[in-house]
Structure to design on (175 residues):
């Protein structure tokens, strides 16, 4: 082999070694890039999970604030029931003094009901029987009502915003 050919072979070998070295470097860099991409993806997922948790906690906090008065309202409902019963009974009496007192009781009751409304607390509607809002405590036969219709309300139900606090206790018609 000639000197030229020998030099050429040596140059080719050096070039091949350099190419192999560069390929190894590239392979190593590709692995590093892939690893960094995986870490970035994990970080993004962790960030998204934190954001979701933050939203859930904010929603729970808002609900806790919205419904914090629920127990207090439950404690006040018997007072409203008693005032309504007092108004109903006093109106049926012939005693003039009692009739004058009914105005004060009615004003007190109205003020409590208005205050409840201002805070999102309302009586359950009684148009139609709904097992989600009404508790049937008795069934009676009635020609004046249709099957399943509410005949009498024993105790009003109340809800706080969209949450039921107490179901209405009602009598429904059966045929």
């Amino acid at each position: 082999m000639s000197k030229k050919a020998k030099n050429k072979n040596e140059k080719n070998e050096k070039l091949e070694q350099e190419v192999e070295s560069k390929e190894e470097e590239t392979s190593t860099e590709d692995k590093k890039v892939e690893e960094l991409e995986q870490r970035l993806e994990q970080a993004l997922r962790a960030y998204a999970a934190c954001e979701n948790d933050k939203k859930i906690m904010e929603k729970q906090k808002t609900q806790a604030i919205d419904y914090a008065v629920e127990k207090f309202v439950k404690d006040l409902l018997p007072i409203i029931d008693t005032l309504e019963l007092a108004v109903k009974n006093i109106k049926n009496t012939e005693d003039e003094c009692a009739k004058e007192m009914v105005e004060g009781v009615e004003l007190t009751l109205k003020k409590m009901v208005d205050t409840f409304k201002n805070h999102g607390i309302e009586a359950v509607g009684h148009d139609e029987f709904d097992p989600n809002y009404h508790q049937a405590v008795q069934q009676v036969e009635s020609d004046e009502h249709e099957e399943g219709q509410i005949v009498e309300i024993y105790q009003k139900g109340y809800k706080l915003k969209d949450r039921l606090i107490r179901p209405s206790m009602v009598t429904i018609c059966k045929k």
The mean pLDDT is 87. The chain has two domains: 1-66, 70-173. The first strand starts at residue 121 and ends at 123. Residues 22 and 91 are 101 Å apart (CA to CA).
